[in-house]
């Protein structure tokens, strides 16, 4: 999702950047999240995720680091390594897992977002059964951070998908988007001055693998 947004925004003239502060992945996965983000944004992959923050084991990053016999992952170190180009219009921070998934030994994805003072959270949720609960639990943790909900794999002809969308909008008063074009337009409309950034995160909804 983040790579697609970056590529589309870039084609439309925006100066984009992405950061994946830490990533863990299956050892045989040669197309990592950072690599996909680099391909979309045109940045060097090491600027997106420093090489020493790559953990080739499909566990939460601090757990992967421990299992691989590498040093502990500390939040303050991750924060200090996030640097932005001076001329960026829209920047994305992609987390690892849902907002309460461990990102470091002393903090989770939510801690990262708060300390980076992101302007907006993009919550990618599944459109299927269970998404209302997952979205509500995530937003309860997020608190006052402005959030846009994107229903992934939304099918307008699927009655359940449409009912979930309407409930989140009408009952929970959320901004809910269901197609990439509308999401790109919304991001362009709310883009802040250069140097500010959005965040892309995922809720642990059914069939929605956190990354």
Describe the model.
This protein has helices spanning 2-11, 33-41, 45-48, 61-67, 75-80, 109-116, 131-142, 159-170, 180-190; strands at 16-19, 23-24, 54-55, 90-94, 102-104, 107-108, 120-126, 147-152, 175-177, 198-202. The chain has 211 residues and is α/β, with parallel strands linked by helices. It has a single domain (2-202), classed as P-loop containing nucleotide triphosphate hydrolases (Rossmann fold). It has a 6-stranded parallel β-sheet, sandwiched between helices. The protein has a two-stranded parallel ribbon with strand order 2-3. The protein is globular and about 50 Å long. Keywords: Biotin biosynthesis. InterPro entries: DTB_synth_BioD, P-loop_NTPase. Pfam families: AAA_26.
* CATH architecture verdict: 3-Layer(aba) Sandwich
Please bin the fraction of helical residues: 25-40%
Shape: globular
Helix and strand succession?
Answer: HEEHHEHHEEEHEHEHEHE
Largest sheet: 6 strands, parallel
Strand content: 15-25%
Which runs of at least 5 residues are low in confidence (pLDDT < 50)?
203-211
Radius of gyration: 17 Å
Organism: Steroidobacter gossypii
InterPro entries: DTB_synth_BioD, P-loop_NTPase
Pfam families: AAA_26
Protein name: Dethiobiotin synthase
């Amino acid at each position: 999702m983040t790579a697609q947004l970056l590529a589309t925004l870039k084609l439309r003239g925006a100066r984009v950047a992405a950061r994946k502060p830490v990533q863990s992945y299956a050892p045989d996965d040669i197309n990592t999240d950072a690599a996909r983000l680099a391909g979309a944004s045109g940045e060097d992959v090491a600027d997106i995720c420093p090489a020493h923050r790559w953990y080739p084991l499909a566990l939460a990053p601090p757990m992967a680091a421990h299992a691989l016999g590498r040093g502990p992952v500390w939040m303050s170190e991750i924060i200090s390594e996030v640097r932005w180009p001076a001329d960026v219009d829209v920047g994305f921070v992609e987390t690892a897992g849902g907002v309460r998934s461990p990102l470091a030994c002393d903090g989770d994805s939510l801690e990262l977002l708060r300390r980076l003072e992101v302007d907006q959270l993009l919550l990618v949720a599944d459109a299927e059964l269970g998404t209302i609960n997952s979205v509500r639990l995530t937003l309860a943790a997020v608190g006052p951070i402005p959030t846009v909900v994107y229903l992934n794999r939304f099918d307008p002809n699927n009655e359940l998908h449409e009912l979930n969308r309407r409930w989140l909008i009408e009952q929970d008063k959320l901004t809910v988007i269901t197609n990439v074009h509308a999401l790109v337009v919304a991001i362009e409309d709310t883009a802040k001055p250069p140097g500010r950034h959005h965040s892309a995160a995922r809720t642990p909804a059914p069939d929605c693998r956190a990354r």
